[in-house]
Design brief:
The protein is of the alpha/beta class and 456 residues long. It is 24% helix and 21% strand. It has two domains: 362 residues, Glycosidases (TIM Barrel), CATH 3.20.20.80; 82 residues, Immunoglobulin-like, CATH 2.60.40. The structure holds alpha-D-glucopyranose. One of its GO terms (cellular component) is lysosome.
Amino acid sequence: MLKTRRLCLALGLAVCLTVGAQDNEIHQRSETYEWPTDQLVVKNLKAWQDLKFGVLFHWGLYAVPGMVESWAICDENWITRDSTRTYQQYMDWYFGLADELKPTKFDPTQWAEACSNAGMKYMIFTTKHHDGFCMWDSQETDFTIAKHAFKDDPRRDVLKHVLDAFRQKQFTIGTYFSKPDWHSQYYWWDVYAKKGRNVNYPVDQHPWRWQQFKKFTHNQMNEILSRYGKVDILWLDGGWVAKENRGQDLDMPEVARIARKNQPGIIIVDRTIHGPYENYQTPERTIPETQLDFPWESCIPLSDDWGWVPRPRFKSPEKVIGTLIEIVAKGGNLVLGVGPTPEGLIEPESVKRLNAIGAWLKLNGKAIYNTTITPYYNEGNVWFTKAKDGSRYYAIYRLNDGEKLPTSITWSQNLPKKAIRLVSNGKRVKYKLQGNQVTVYLPKQLPQQSIALEIE
Ligand code: GLC
């Protein structure tokens, strides 16, 4: 499924580029899952599974022109640029954005507030995307926000302020880190042509250079995980950086050692590389077809894009709520992509949508948070979850965009023994049991949105 989108940037020379996210190719869900052997990681994973809903921020150089994150500098056949500049000119322009990213209104407490109001419980922040630009004050490179246009601002070590703001709101904290680094001479070496997303030199012929890349990567991870307080999740993107692929071996046992020396029990997500370092799976922009009984998380952006773009096409709050309902009934978490503006704020339209999602969760969250799965999890528009102590089921009627609530709902398993109540106000609703079928009569004047019922 190649999704293609046209982006036109008016920046001196108009640059037109077609970016298609080849998501399926890169980020397919793993077929097997391996439970970690470290019991602290298992415990943390179980706690994370209870959270259900989080935010994934993409914020970096790409916010300045409002374009797709990083990918435009990568030559693959799904990426096209106009012919008015050479590749080198284009790279110079892109990397030069470091001198323009000056988020004078940077306010991570506004982000944390908006996400908390949305009912989100954990957050993941792009410390470094594939373009290699660091959103923390790395000592390993000058290519960081702390050493460019934002260098004189007291908040230049952006990562610190983002993590602090979210910790203040009791969020579980995750750091996104790109394994590939298209700015590093140890990954894309100017001596060779750049073709595609991979390392551009033969690793077996240049072992020293790859060794340097490994060291650089380990040191950067060490910075992120040692300097900024507690981090709960290390979310590693760029699944093509793997031993099996051109020898791009980052020595994952060593990565895990560094990570857990700094952060005992940290959840590591080496996306799409199933095994001991993919502690949960991350289907991207999709929901798995069936329920899965191991830890997983769908990552889906609120608009069509991960990062901020000037004219986003947003999903409706109802659509996001419906997605969350289905994901939770199937045993997963939803991490929703939000892109802060180049000035450093979450834009009003996003805030509005996040608020609407949060308003629903405030009333119906009992059927979502801290629940577990039940084998019979779906019948038509109705999705089921279960209280962890097994004392009750929840039936959530998902109202899809453009539909109206019916006057009654019927289902045929997870039947009531005592009562059915509206989760939003605890009031009993009328129902009729006939054979193995229950029909619930919804009260009039319910708001036209998805509705959660408690089955006792
Ligand atoms: C895709 C995109 C990448 C983005 C990630 C987030 O892999 O290619 O740019 O960071 O999704 O899940």
